[in-house]
Design brief:
This protein is α+β, with helices and mostly antiparallel strands and 188 residues long. The protein has helices at 10-39, 62-65, 124-153, 166-180, and strands spanning 42-56, 72-85, 88-100, 105-120. It is 42% helix and 31% strand.
């Protein structure tokens, strides 16, 4: 005996129509999402590299054996950024450290550690914060390790740099520039 198929209920018909409408809308929604993704801001690291490096220990081995009394350490870090091409920028950390005692220089370090970044769909008003905050924050851990390795390989205790608050530095520099009535364009 053959079974008869029951006629679809009205609710089932509505569900089928809703499913078909959702299936048709899904490609349109996906296309819209894809267009939004294409417009989303992106920061890509293309390369990281040592641009300049100098380690000097002019009074070694004497300073290795007896660094002297009250050695001092002076550390400076600056950030620079330059446009390299369409959407390509170089951000560099310029690091200097001088360890000395009243009689001698213990060591001098000069390091320029840089990164090449592709910035896509970054609004113009956000370009400087990205180049002077986000990019240096990505580079700093690598520079920090280099400095520690250099001092250790130079025969001294490793110089472990404290973290740098790049957002605070950026705000301070922006306030200083604003007080001077200047803006800081990004060199090309």
């Amino acid at each position: 005996m053959a079974k008869k198929k029951a006629a679809p209920k009205a609710e089932d018909a509505k569900t089928a129509e809703t499913s078909e409408a959702a299936a048709e809308a899904a490609p349109q929604d996906a296309a819209a999402a894809g267009a939004q993704d294409q417009q989303a801001a992106q920061l890509n690291v293309l390369a990281q590299y040592i641009k300049d490096l100098s380690f000097e220990s002019p009074n070694a081995p004497g300073t290795l054996q007896a660094p002297g009394e009250n050695p001092s350490l002076e550390v400076n870090v600056n950030v620079q950024a330059r446009k390299q091409g369409d959407d390509i920028y170089e951000t560099s950390l310029h690091f200097e450290a001088k360890a000395a005692n009243p009689e001698n220089v213990i060591y001098n370090i000069e390091l320029v550690y840089a990164g090449l970044f592709r910035l896509t769909n970054i609004p113009e008003n956000m370009l400087q914060p990205v180049l002077f905050v986000d990019c240096p924050s990505m580079l700093f851990p690598f520079m920090r390790r280099l400095v520690a390795d250099l001092t250790r390989e130079g025969g001294y205790p490793p110089l472990y740099l404290d973290p740098i608050d790049f957002p605070a530095l950026y705000r301070q520099n922006a306030e200083r520039m604003q007080a001077q009535g200047a803006t800081a364009p990004i060199p090309g």
